[in-house]
Amino acid sequence: MGAALSWAREVVPPKSKFSVNNIPDLAGEVIIVTGANTGIGKETALALLSHNAKVYIAARNQPQSEETIRELKDKTGNEAIFLKLDLANLKSVKVAAEEFLRYYSLNSPETQLHVLINNAGVMFPPKDLLTTDGYDLQFGTNVLGHHYFTKLLLPTLISTAQTSPDGKARVVTVASSAHLFGSLDFATFKDGPVRKKMSPQSLYGQSKYGNIVSALELAKRYGNQGIVSIALN
Fold first, then answer.
1. Contact 35, 58 (CB under 8 A)
2. At what angle do helices 90-106 and 146-163 cross, to 10 degrees?
3. pLDDT per position as a tens digit, 86-129
4. Longest CA span, the chain
5. Lowest model confidence (mean pLDDT) among 7-11, 124-128, 151-155, 217-221
6. What is the side-by-side strand order in the sheet with 81-84?
7. Whether pLDDT at 39 is above 90
8. CATH tag, 85-231
9. Other Cβ atoms closer than 10 A to 152
10. CA distance 127 to 219
11. To 5 degrees, how large is the angle CA 87–CA 31–CA 214?
């Protein structure tokens, strides 16, 4: 099946057989959603809070995140927790993971993380923009930042899976049908002559392809330890 046909089928999917109303009570579930201060992540946080999950909104913009938290509390009666995370800065990613583990260990007798939703991302930024560590902004934010954040929290996810009733912990990565037009070229992860020849659209497709590679590899390596890792459009 060609990429164009696959893309067309994903753009017009069949009617969903599952709705937000089908989500069970999530009391006791601890979930981090990156980029949950706006867009898809915000709607995800709304659904999760509506079903009593403990939700961490991991994002860079603190004022906007705090406004989102107030808005979601008004709608659901449940209050999310802000976790400062800049995915375009690997030092910030490490600090965020450490802060989560520190905060939660102080507020729970046992650190748990049932679901990590890798949602935050950038799309078609000016091509001259790079991450703090010198990576292409789209690849660095969409793929590398999430990969590092997941890696740092992986021991907690594995330990949670071992004590969860279903023996599972989940990592959900938001990709895109744009992956159909992407591939991975190591020469373009940082700036250089090869990257300069690529369009922002191609670099975005590469990042979404990278999301899927990362999600599938995580499932392959840690599925036998209870990690359910999937990517979605």
1. yes
2. 20
3. 999 999 999 999 999 987 666 665 678 999 999 988 999 999 99
4. 52
5. 7-11
6. 81-84, 54-59, 30-34, 115-118, 169-174, 227-232
7. yes
8. 3.40.50.720
9. 16
10. 32
11. 50
Alpha carbon distance 110, 197 (integer Å): 50
d(CA 132, CA 140): 9
Catalytic residue numbers read 204, 208
Contact 32, 116 (CB under 8 A): yes
Rg for the chain, CA atoms, rounded: 18
8 A C-beta contact, residue 96 and residue 85: yes
Backbone dihedral region for residue 91 (phi beyond 0: left; psi -120 to 50: alpha; all else: beta): alpha
Give pLDDT tens digits for 66-89: 999 999 999 999 999 999 999 999
3-state secondary structure of 132: coil
Token output for 146: 């999430």
What distance, in Å, lies between the first and last C-alpha atoms of the chain? Answer: 18
Q: What is the pLDDT of residues 138-192, one digit of tens each?
A: 999 999 999 999 999 999 999 999 999 999 999 999 998 888 788 999 999 999 9
Residue with tokens 């209050």: 79
Q: For residue 158, which amino acid is it?
A: I
Q: Which of 125, 136, 40, 154 is nearest to 88 (CA)?
A: 136
